[in-house]
Design a protein that fits this description.
Length: about 475
């Protein structure tokens, strides 16, 4: 991880805490018996420490690390601890205990949170995962009752937004998969240019971090208790955003260049799955194997990345793999090694779609060229995307041809695109008429998806309206298992 000895210490914006008080707690699975716990502080912490145990009154174990990272335009430090040797499918209570002076007496006080470790690979107990993509900061710095110029679907006064709905429905899912576009803090520029956010362009680094901090503060009730598994999106590295014609890279805060903020903030289980940082990795949960892949960089095969095709001022950079085909090689190796007797379900998630009712420029053809053949070859059941800010459920499909079995034991992957979580720019309208592979679509409601694994043969995907909590679309996939 990138690190720096200094961060911005003085800004005009208020903080949600001070000193070494932990904020923005976030969990991630880290293998079957470990959990990654991360949090931010406004001061560097000497020995980031977690106290934990089976009851909130007996946090008798501890785990620590030396990792406290930041980057020059950030005003917080990211702290990462791996808690190991845990029992599977077990609830643990934890509390951050660390300080800027190396003692265990932090100046700030933290409260006790809890998490549940993953079900062991092979466990057939039904469970539910949440899918959310393209979710930005909510409220007056992001999605509100006003949306950007030319955008649609502002929130109605008092409307429950997706972060609030994820918090309200927290008991209805075990963990969250969020493949790309988190916070939209790079929108500081567009929001300033459009007069939505007070400030000027020279305040970029502060505004970027303000939006970032706000988003992770808002999401903390979810991320402190539910593993939050992320993948990279273009807004983790966009430096040409906002229709700002006088853009030069010199005004782009470091956090949004080459995924710097994203790399520092998260701690995905690539080390235990052979993957690469927060870019590509896999994990197991009960009867499901999950692979997270990167549509932004490292497509391999000599392919030009999606943003280079767009002619933007920045190609989102990378690569992160040691070799040109590192991601593809890993994906093949990972999927080849899945024991479908233990994890009959295989779910793949990557930010940009290649099947959706949208203009050609929104279809990631290089992603399709690089990734689709592998997903077909290894019998991936479900593919999750976002990027286009709407919801669409396709028929199972391969190489552009709809699977004749539809949802009744198809041999092709089934695609769920749900970029409808919401951000400053509202929702996108899908193309009319819809593509021939489209089976359901919603482009006027904010929402997230629930993936309900009933058993080894039946999986239901639901689109949940953020405003009402109602299920607005539901479909069940049947897969015959050998
Ligand atoms: Fe995106």
């Amino acid at each position: 991880m990138a690190s720096s000895s200094q961060a911005i210490s003085e800004t005009h914006f208020s903080r949600s805490a001070d000193g070494d008080s932990p904020v923005q707690h976030r969990l991630a699975f880290h293998g079957p018996t470990s959990m990654a716990i991360s949090w931010n502080t406004y001061e560097a912490v000497q020995t980031p420490t977690i106290r934990y145990g089976f009851s909130k009154d007996a946090l008798i174990f501890s785990a620590r690390s030396k990792v406290s990272t930041t980057y020059p335009t950030s005003r917080t430090w990211n702290n990462h601890v791996i808690v190991e040797g845990l029992l599977p499918n077990t609830r643990y209570y934890y509390k951050v205990k660390s300080s800027s002076d190396g003692s265990d007496k932090s100046k700030g006080q933290d409260q006790v949170y809890s998490f549940k470790t993953p079900r062991l690979k092979g466990d057939r107990t039904p469970y539910t995962a949440a899918l959310v993509v393209d979710m930005g900061v909510m409220g007056s710095d992001g999605l509100s009752t006003t949306v950007g110029k030319g955008a649609a679907n502002p929130l109605k006064p008092g409307e429950t937004n997706t972060i609030q709905r994820l918090i309200a429905e927290k008991d209805s899912y075990e963990f969250v998969v969020h493949p790309g576009d988190l916070a939209y803090s790079d929108y500081w520029l567009k929001e300033v240019v459009q007069g939505y956010l007070p400030g000027n362009i020279s305040a970029g680094p502060e505004l970027y971090e303000k939006l970032n901090e706000e988003f992770y503060d808002q999401l903390q009730p979810v991320t402190s208790e539910k593993p939050y598994m992320v993948g990279p999106g273009n807004h983790e590295a966009n430096c040409d955003n906002g229709g700002y014609k006088n853009y030069t890279e010199s005004i782009c805060p470091m956090g949004q260049t080459n995924f710097t903020g994203y790399i520092n903030r998260f701690n995905m289980p690539s080390a235990v799955s052979g993957g690469q940082g927060n870019f590509w990795y896999s994990f197991d949960y009960g009867m499901t194997h999950y692979v997270i892949f990167d549509t932004e960089t490292d497509l391999g095969l000599g392919l030009v990345g999606p943003d280079e095709l767009g002619g933007g001022a920045n190609d989102n950079e990378g690569p992160f793999g040691a070799t040109m085909n590192a991601q593809r090689d890993w994906l093949i190796k990972d999927l080849r090694s899945v024991n479908r007797k233990l994890t009959p379900w295989v779910v793949a998630a990557g930010h940009r779609p290649w099947y959706i009712s949208a203009a050609a420029k929104n279809l990631c053809q290089p992603c399709q060229q690089s990734i689709e053949p592998i997903l077909i070859e290894y019998g991936v059941d479900v593919v999750l995307h976002g990027h286009v800010h709407a919801y669409e459920r396709t028929a199972p499909i391969r190489n552009g041809t709809v699977d004749p079995n539809e949802l009744n034991n198809p041999s092709s992957p089934w695609y769920i695109i749900n970029g409808a979580a919401g951000h400053y720019d509202g929702l996108d309208s899908l193309a009319t008429p819809r593509a021939n592979f489209s089976r359901a679509s919603i482009d006027t409601l904010y929402g997230f998806s629930r993936l309900i694994f009933h058993n080894e043969t039946h999986l239901t995907q639901e689109f949940v309206s953020s405003a009402t909590g109602q299920v607005m679309d539901s479909a069940t996939l049947y897969k015959k298992r050998k």
